Amino acid sequence: MNISTFDLNLLRVLDALLQERNVSRAAERLALSQPAVSNALGRLRALLDDPLLVRVGRGMQPTPRALELETPIRAALQQIQESLGEGLRFDPASSQRCFRIAVTDYVELICMPRLLQQLALEAPGLQIEIQHLSPRLPVEALDQAELDLALGRFEEVPERFVRRPWMSETLQLVVRRDHPQLQGPPGLEAFLKLRHLWVHGGQTRGMVDQWLAGQGLQRRIAYTTPNYLQAAHIVASTDLVAVLPTQLARYFAGLMPLQLYELPFHLGPFHLEITSPALRERDPALQWLIGKIQRLG
Fold first, then answer.
1. Residue range 74-100: average pLDDT?
2. Which pLDDT value is given to residue 85?
3. Residues 252, 272: Cα–Cα separation, whole Å
4. Strands 220-225 and 195-199: what pairing?
5. Is the overall model pTM greater than 0.85, yes or no?
6. Per-residue pLDDT tens digits for 159-212
7. Is 252 helix (H, G, I), strand (E, B) or coil?
């Protein structure tokens, strides 16, 4: 294909169609008429020799070729938009941007309610879409603009990303009240004999187990989950114990029959970061949002 004769406006139409899966909604997003979008889709089908979107019921289903094109086209359009928009003023009061953020359920609980309260006052048109963290920093999704930023604790971050300190947190042992093996804060020996629930929280190895391994010790992990919020419910109704972030532990201790204890060894705090692509440093909207999140730490 000769790119010099390709109408690049068609890529905006394809991106809108892939997001909306509907010609009418895509036309509304682009401020075009429905016949204009249908005509553009016809031209795209001819140029790319593929149906791209096939009608299924009331919506449209993308073909494998369209799905293959979706991520690189969206990333390219976003980069062009940011490049052309350098130096432009960002107006939070009128912006309709949608930001996609990767967090654990724990970070979502302690951060997002407060952030949404601020956005309702200062940027009511902004949208937030949350994706939960996988065990590693979602590098590919950030590179391809499927995510705008990630909040969490990351051990390995490539140099093409910017890391900003956000919040420091400590850990506490959480057990159900009247636990049959605990009548007070456990010593190290008693701690190791308990049956533990481990929340991996996007990590492949937690701080507790790293410290224990350094002492040649190991605790009994009976249950592993990625969900902090479910952990508190499980601990409240079983004899399992869990080591949870202090803010989360105190929150649930006010709602459930839970007892909190200090750990029988000193770990110090852990640190959460805001991680975003360095290429997005000149995106005024994203930088505004990052500033808002930083002040919540």
1. 78
2. 58
3. 21
4. parallel
5. no
6. 999 999 999 999 999 999 999 999 899 999 999 999 999 998 656 678 999 999
7. helix
Residue partners of 290: CB distance under 8 A and separation at least 6: 149, 164, 274, 276
pLDDT exceeds 70 at position 88: no
Q: Where in the chain is the domain with CATH 1.10.10.10?
A: 3-84
Q: Are strands 195-199 and 241-245 parallel, antiparallel or unpaired?
A: parallel
Residue 200: partners with Cβ closer than 8 Å, 6 or more residues away: 135, 206, 224, 225, 226
> For helices 34-48 and 9-20, what crossing angle results, to 10°?
110
Classify 171-268 by CATH class: alpha beta
**Distance between CA atoms of residues 151 and 281, nearest Å:** 16
The residue among 92, 91, 152 whose CA lies nearest residue 127 is: 92
Give the CA distances from residue 78 to residues 31, 202, 281, in Å, rounded to whole numbers and listed in that order.
18, 28, 13
Q: CA neighbours within 13 Å on the CB side: how many for 253?
A: 17
- CATH code that applies to domain 3-84: 1.10.10.10
Q: Is residue 36 within a helix (H) or strand (E), and if so which, with residue range? A: helix 34-48
At the fourth CATH level, the homologous superfamily of domain 98-168+272-294 is Periplasmic binding protein-like II (3.40.190.10)
DSSP string, 173-210: EEEETT-TT-SS---HHHHHHSEEEEE-TT-SS-HHHH
Take residue 25 and report the two structure tokens written for it.
């909604």
User: CB within 8 A of 1, min separation 6: which ones?
Assistant: 47
Is 285:90 a contact under the CB 8 Å cutoff? yes
In the chain, CATH 3.40.190.10 sits at: 98-168+272-294, 171-268
